[in-house]
């Protein structure tokens, strides 16, 4: 096409609203579609270089007409109101002006895709921001958890190390008060005997509280040691009976033993097992008035089963659920009436688990409680308390 004719055609097309244009170049065999501002928005056609050169070379005019017809037919089928004109700019380049609804349809589709892409990008940024915030919160919670655990370990380690320093002076107070009490009794000084008995009882009570706190701290700090030894289970039962009888009689209770004859020999920490059973018997006696406390024991293979059953005040299911938590008693009124810190059962369960066993409880409010202790007859290695 002569230059003058091309310029004239371009001037005529200025009066038509050009929505888009396509360029076809034979040297690379491509077709690009441009919008009004000249941004590339998609590749419409790829031709082999040789074919593009042949078609757009000496057959440029014929090809332009054929492409124009095809475009018009295609655009008409799309919306029935489109127009396309092809101009041959030279032996190797053509320009197609497309006017009408087809380009509008294409632009609408492109705008929709771009909008969705923008929304997707925004959602992606929001999600990334939320993930970042969650990670920061998780890191803060983890840091707080580690700090709390460190503080708790430090507290437990401190109390565990203070065991000797706290117990030694109390043992001295208790010991000297007992000696003075014996002297006062020998000299027939009843007023002094009563006062010294009060001092001794207060010292024993305080020592028990300190022992409970220190035991719990040792367990939490992982410093509770076990000392295994061989012993006959029946000897443990007999020792417990002699020790607990005065306390059971104090509340007008009756102790019943239901012990199997084949308990045999155990290898475990005798003092820890004794501490557990003594705590269960003490609790049963404390919360029972003019009732019956039964201690059962039997052997099942390599396991020893102990039960402490009382006819005392019992507990509701809600209170049983939290019974083994430290510093927990069934009710506030119970603590005020019967005393205690609520550490005994927490320590007992922890010790039972250190021995490889566990403690369970069944209770009915107003009817009594049944505590079951299960421990292996041969405890081989300490287990972490739960």
UniProtKB/TrEMBL annotation:
<dbReference type="GO" id="GO:0016020">
    <property type="term" value="C:membrane"/>
</dbReference>
<dbReference type="GO" id="GO:0005524">
    <property type="term" value="F:ATP binding"/>
</dbReference>
<keyword id="KW-0902">Two-component regulatory system</keyword>
<protein>
    <recommendedName>
        <fullName>Circadian input-output histidine kinase CikA</fullName>
        <ecNumber>2.7.13.3</ecNumber>
    </recommendedName>
</protein>
<dbReference type="InterPro" id="IPR004358">
    <property type="entry name" value="Sig_transdc_His_kin-like_C"/>
</dbReference>
<keyword id="KW-0812">Transmembrane</keyword>
<feature type="coiled-coil region">
    <location>
        <begin position="106"/>
        <end position="154"/>
    </location>
</feature>
<dbReference type="GO" id="GO:0000155">
    <property type="term" value="F:phosphorelay sensor kinase activity"/>
</dbReference>
<keyword id="KW-0547">Nucleotide-binding</keyword>
<keyword id="KW-0175">Coiled coil</keyword>
<dbReference type="Pfam" id="PF02518">
    <property type="entry name" value="HATPase_c"/>
</dbReference>
<dbReference type="InterPro" id="IPR005467">
    <property type="entry name" value="His_kinase_dom"/>
</dbReference>
<dbReference type="InterPro" id="IPR003661">
    <property type="entry name" value="HisK_dim/P_dom"/>
</dbReference>
<keyword id="KW-0067">ATP-binding</keyword>
<dbReference type="InterPro" id="IPR050736">
    <property type="entry name" value="Sensor_HK_Regulatory"/>
</dbReference>
<keyword id="KW-0597">Phosphoprotein</keyword>
<dbReference type="InterPro" id="IPR036097">
    <property type="entry name" value="HisK_dim/P_sf"/>
</dbReference>
<keyword id="KW-0472">Membrane</keyword>
<dbReference type="InterPro" id="IPR036890">
    <property type="entry name" value="HATPase_C_sf"/>
</dbReference>
<feature type="domain" description="Histidine kinase">
    <location>
        <begin position="161"/>
        <end position="379"/>
    </location>
</feature>
<keyword id="KW-0418">Kinase</keyword>
<keyword id="KW-1133">Transmembrane helix</keyword>
<keyword id="KW-0131">Cell cycle</keyword>
<feature type="transmembrane region" description="Helical">
    <location>
        <begin position="63"/>
        <end position="80"/>
    </location>
</feature>
<feature type="transmembrane region" description="Helical">
    <location>
        <begin position="12"/>
        <end position="33"/>
    </location>
</feature>
<keyword id="KW-0808">Transferase</keyword>
<comment type="similarity">
    <text>In the N-terminal section; belongs to the phytochrome family.</text>
</comment>
<dbReference type="InterPro" id="IPR003594">
    <property type="entry name" value="HATPase_dom"/>
</dbReference>
<feature type="transmembrane region" description="Helical">
    <location>
        <begin position="86"/>
        <end position="106"/>
    </location>
</feature>
<dbReference type="Pfam" id="PF00512">
    <property type="entry name" value="HisKA"/>
</dbReference>
């Amino acid at each position: 096409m002569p230059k003058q004719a091309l310029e004239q055609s371009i001037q005529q097309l200025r009066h038509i609203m050009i929505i888009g244009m396509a360029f076809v170049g034979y040297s690379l065999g491509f077709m690009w579609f441009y919008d009004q501002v000249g941004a590339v928005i998609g590749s419409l056609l790829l031709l082999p270089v040789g074919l593009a050169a042949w078609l757009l070379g000496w057959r440029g005019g014929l090809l332009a007409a054929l492409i124009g017809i095809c475009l018009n037919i295609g655009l008409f089928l799309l919306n029935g109101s489109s127009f396309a004109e092809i101009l041959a700019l030279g032996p190797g380049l053509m320009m197609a002006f497309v006017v009408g609804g087809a380009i509008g349809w294409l632009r609408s589709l492109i705008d929709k895709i771009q909008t969705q892409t923008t929304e997707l990008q925004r959602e992606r940024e929001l999600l990334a921001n939320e993930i970042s915030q969650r990670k920061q919160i998780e890191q803060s919670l983890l840091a707080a958890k580690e700090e709390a655990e460190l503080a708790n370990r430090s507290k437990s380690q401190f109390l565990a190390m203070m065991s000797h320093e706290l117990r030694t002076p109390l043992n001295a107070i208790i010991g000297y008060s007992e000696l003075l009490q014996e002297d006062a009794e020998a000299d027939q000084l009843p007023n002094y005997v009563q006062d010294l008995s009060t001092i001794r009882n207060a010292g024993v009570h305080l020592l028990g509280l300190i022992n409970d706190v220190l035991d719990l701290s040792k367990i939490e700090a992982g410093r509770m040691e076990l000392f295994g030894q061989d012993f006959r289970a029946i000897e443990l039962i007999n020792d417990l009976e002699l020790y607990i009888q005065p306390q059971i009689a104090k509340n007008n209770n009756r102790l019943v033993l239901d012990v199997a004859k084949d308990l045999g020999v155990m290898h475990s920490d005798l003092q820890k097992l004794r501490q557990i059973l003594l705590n269960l018997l003490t609790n049963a006696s404390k919360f029972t008035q003019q009732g019956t406390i039964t201690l059962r024991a039997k052997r099942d293979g390599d396991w020893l089963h102990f039960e402490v059953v009382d006819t005392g005040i019992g507990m509701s299911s809600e209170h049983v659920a939290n019974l083994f938590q430290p510093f927990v008693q069934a009710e506030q009124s119970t603590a005020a009436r019967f005393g205690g810190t609520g550490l005994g059962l927490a320590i007992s369960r922890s010790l039972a688990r250190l021995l490889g066993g566990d403690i369970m409880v069944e209770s009915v409010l107003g009817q009594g409680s049944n505590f079951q202790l299960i421990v292996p007859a041969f405890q081989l290695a300490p287990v972490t308390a739960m």
